[in-house]
Write a structure and sequence with these properties.
This protein has 216 residues and is mostly beta strands. It has a single domain, classed as Galactose-binding domain-like (Jelly Rolls). It has one helix at 192-215; strands spanning 2-3, 9-15, 22-24, 35-37, 45-47, 51-54, 57-61, 65-73, 79-89, 95-100, 108-115, 125-131, 137-145, 155-162, 170-175, 178-185. The strands form two sheets. Strands 1, 3, 4, 5, 8, 9, 11, 14 and 16 form a nine-stranded mixed beta sheet that branches. Strand 6 (51-54) and strand 7 (57-61) form a beta hairpin. The radius of gyration is 20 Å and the shape is globular.
Length: 216
């Protein structure tokens, strides 16, 4: 995909996060050792109900969506597709997509996206909300931009959030006719309970090993 060079946009944010946290518009700003999911392993998988488990991420929508979509006419935002696979909102009207880390958390999450736009008033928008393990809202961000133009091809904007700690457990994305690609996030961190279970398991293995060595 071609990176958009000029874009008229407005970021509206409401958050209780510290100054270390930041809304980002470039996936390269996700902390190092990031994982990128590009949907190239899917080929038009329609999810009408239920969820998609993709590399540890649980993706679910309140309306139908498609993983591995390969073409999308976005009106005044041009066309996506031709050899590239992505995730698309299939519902005409506002739709919510939830992306959770299955009980784990991450520090940063971002994605490439565009959205269906048939008017020239810049009314197309996308809202992303970030929640912790207790379902508390960490950050709410809304991006409004002018259309790219009906003749543009594979134009996109990157959007995301880096928290001050690894406390992002779920991301909720709301929009109308959204297409997403290159979900980018830092390595998820297990819950403290998971660490406790791991340590207990290692301790038990050590105890068994010591008993075996004594018997030998």
């Amino acid at each position: 995909m071609n990176k958009l060079n000029l874009i008229a946009g407005l970021l509206l944010a409401a958050s209780a996060a510290t100054a270390q946290a930041a809304v980002i518009v470039d996936r390269a700003n996700v902390p190092a050792n990031a994982t990128v999911l590009d949907f190239e392993s899917f080929d038009g998988m329609v999810i009408g109900s239920g969820s998609l488990n993709y590399n540890g991420l649980l993706i679910s929508g309140n309306q139908q969506f498609t993983a591995g979509q390969n073409i999308a006419d976005l009106g005044e935002n041009g066309v996506w597709g031709a050899g590239n696979h992505f995730l698309s909102f299939d519902h005409l009207g506002s739709m919510t997509l939830d992306i959770s880390f299955n009980g784990q958390t991450t520090k940063g999450f971002a994605f490439d996206y565009s959205i269906y736009e048939e008017d020239l008033d810049g009314s197309a928008f996308l809202t992303a909300r970030y929640f912790d393990l207790s379902n508390n809202l960490i950050k709410s961000t809304k991006f409004i931009y002018s259309p790219f133009g009906a003749t543009t091809y594979d134009q996109f904007q990157s959007f995301g959030f880096v928290s001050n700690t690894a406390n992002i457990a779920r991301v909720s994305i709301v929009g109308d006719g959204v297409v997403l690609d290159n979900l980018t996030y830092t390595q998820p961190v297990p819950e403290p309970e998971s660490y406790a279970m791991l340590l207990a398991g290692l301790g038990l293995m050590g105890l068994v090993a010591r008993r075996r060595s004594k018997r030998g």
